[in-house]
Design brief:
Elements: E1 2-10, H1 22-34, E2 38-43, E3 51-55, E4 61-65, E5 73-82, H2 86-95, E6 102-108
Antiparallel strand pairs: 1-5, 1-6, 2-5, 3-4
């Protein structure tokens, strides 16, 4: 079953918590790929590069720079992994360096 691991980082943190440095990310990425569970994944560019689009009931589009909501966490990236069940997905989420300075949200991918 496929699971999405959403990597949320503390907005005030520089992403340099112990065990959350570039080498740690590279090692985790390699581990996921070597385990044969990697489906896809990306790191997102800095939050200041974001653009938000909203469309109202009348079809009018509003575009604003950055995310609109005030939040203490920002989405930093994601992995999609293919593992047997939720327990295995949670184990991989706990291994992710992002779990050390933020949180990992685990969601099953819907199969339509």
């Amino acid at each position: 079953m496929k699971y999405l691991l959403l990597i949320n980082a503390d907005a005030a943190d520089s992403g340099q918590a112990v065990g959350c440095e570039p080498a740690d990310w590279m090692a985790y990425d390699k581990e996921v790929k070597e385990a044969g569970i990697f489906v896809s994944g990306e790191s997102l560019a800095d939050l200041v590069t974001a653009t938000t689009v909203r469309v109202d009931a009348g079809g009018k589009r509003t575009v604003t720079d950055g995310p609109f909501a005030e939040t203490r966490e920002v989405l930093g990236g994601f992995y999609v992994i293919d593992v047997p069940d939720l327990d295995v997905a949670l184990d991989w989420a706990a291994r992710c360096p992002g779990s050390r300075d933020g949180s990992i949200t685990v969601r099953p991918v819907a199969d339509f």
